[in-house]
Specification:
This protein has 13 helices and eight strands. By secondary structure, the chain is an alpha/beta fold. It starts with 22 loop residues before the first strand and ends in an 18-residue tail after the last helix. Bound molecules: phosphoenolpyruvate (PEP) and manganese (II) ion.
Length: 373
């Protein structure tokens, strides 16, 4: 069911100087100094791809005692860079007073980060602080995979009178191990698009991938899914960055990547196709591999512990319980019992090999299975 406010959202092509159909936003995770900001911003503006500079003035850090941003002193530097380069300025706000500072210092766009969208009280306080100003707002998905929370934050900001809105997909934290810093779960932004079709939707591949090596494949996936653009973390010298050094790229690397991505034809059809299902399978298998690797790591730890304690590694009672538990759980999930039996046996054999310190392919004298899985 489409959300009622959907038709009242301004397309960003009406209020931003785009170069092409996509909106590319780039800039450092955090502003660290005036010279870092200037080097990075000039590098970005020279690529010609980017009309908006993102910049962290206040940084929400998971742990205390880390760099938390320059604070309001950075606005003087931002104003100068805006005047000299013509870039529009986007700043993250995590509290109402941040939003008020952004209004006072004429930031062009504010955005709500994943740790803010997750909290409806804070979103409402920010909405109240900007009420009636019409300032453009970008809303990142909440940290947890909860579409209602994301839509709720967009509604609160919209009800405060901002119709220049952009949703940003930055992936989700779940308990699953993953090669990505935040799992993309593409079906969630796609569902947002179905529910709020007129809302511009861009992707932040930097916070999804968590590292520069995986960034382009995520960016490509987002554009293939017809997302409307990208927000990318760019730093003139990523290795020296005070926050998120692994995922930031230089302006030159971004320029090359965006030139390659420009060749991708956007898909017209959002319906579920063979490609969509294959993409789900790929994502699923990547998660499965990461979980298997984690599982084997646990086996290795068990093996080491037993060796240290000089414990007998043959524990048939534990093995029997474990098989019986997995058979039951697998059956309740609708898995074919024959497949499950083969899979458990394979898992067990590999676990035995690891615990016995054997090289792959070496004969196993302990078979049939008699160790912990
Ligand atoms: C950021 O954009 O620098 C940031 C903190 O991102 P997120 O809210 O997605 O974690
Ligand atoms: Mn960051």
């Amino acid at each position: 069911m489409p959300v009622a406010f959907s038709t009242d959202i301004s397309p960003f092509s009406e209020w931003l100087p785009l170069r092409g159909n996509h909106l590319y936003i780039a800039g450092p995770c955090s502003i660290e100094s005036q010279s870092q900001l200037e080097k990075t911003a000039w590098g970005i503006v020279k690529t010609g791809h980017v009309p908006v500079l993102r910049a962290g003035v206040w940084k929400p850090r998971s742990r205390p005692g880390q760099f938390e941003g320059i604070g309001i002193e950075a606005f003087g530097w931002l104003k100068k860079i805006r005047r000299d380069t013509g870039l529009r300025i986007a700043v993250e706000v995590a509290r109402p007073d941040h939003a008020i500072q952004c209004l006072e210092h004429e930031a062009d766009i504010i955005w709500l980060g994943a740790r803010t969208t997750v909290n409806p009280f804070m979103v409402q306080e920010i909405a109240d602080a900007i009420s009636g100003t019409g300032i453009p707002v970008m809303i990142k998905n909440p940290v947890s995979p909860d579409l209602r929370l994301w839509i709720g934050a967009i509604e609160r900001i919209h009800m405060a009178g901002s119709t220049k809105l952009i949703a940003i997909h930055r992936g989700f934290k779940t308990h699953q191990p993953s090669v990505y810093r935040n799992i993309p779960l593409w079906e969630i932004p796609m569902e947002l698009r179905r529910e709020v079709p007129d809302l511009p939707l861009i992707c932040d591949p930097s916070h999804i991938s968590g590292n520069a090596a995986l960034l382009e494949e995520i960016a490509k996936q987002a554009l293939t899914l017809s997302m409307n653009g990208l927000m990318i973390e760019v730093h003139h010298h990523p290795e020296k960055a005070l926050t998120d050094p692994e995922q930031q790229i230089t302006p030159k690397v971004m320029d090359d990547m965006l030139s390659r991505l420009a060749a991708i034809p956007p898909r017209q059809q959002m319906a579920e196709t063979l490609d969509d299902l294959r993409r789900h399978i790929d994502e699923n298998d990547h998660e499965l591999l990461a979980m298997l690797a984690h599982r084997m790591q646990l086996s290795r730890q068990i093996g080491e512990l037993k060796k240290r304690k000089n414990e007998d590694i043959v524990q048939p009672g534990r093995l029997k319980d474990l098989f019986s538990d997995r058979r039951q759980k697998g059956a309740s999930l609708g898995l074919n019992p024959d497949f499950l039996e083969n899979f458990l046996q394979l898992l067990h054999d590999e676990s035995v090999r690891i615990q016995s310190d054997k090289r792959p392919g070496e004969p196993d004298h302990h078979k049939p299975g008699n160790k912990d899985l």
